[in-house]
């Protein structure tokens, strides 16, 4: 899958800064493909990030 630049940067942030595993990212991206929605919310809904991490993700997105 070829990712748009902004999504690739978000995934890099999630993996490098928040230590989200590649397997968790894979699960979340599959859900986004099947049921489009904001990736951060998918991660949170499936328990892959905490509410604090979700806040950090949105802070990062606002600054990008």
Automatic annotation (TrEMBL):
Domain of life of the native organism: Bacteria
A Pfam family hit: DUF2949
Name recorded for this polypeptide: DUF2949 domain-containing protein
Organism of origin: Chamaesiphon polymorphus CCALA 037
Organism phylogeny: Bacteria, Bacillati, Cyanobacteriota, Cyanophyceae, Gomontiellales
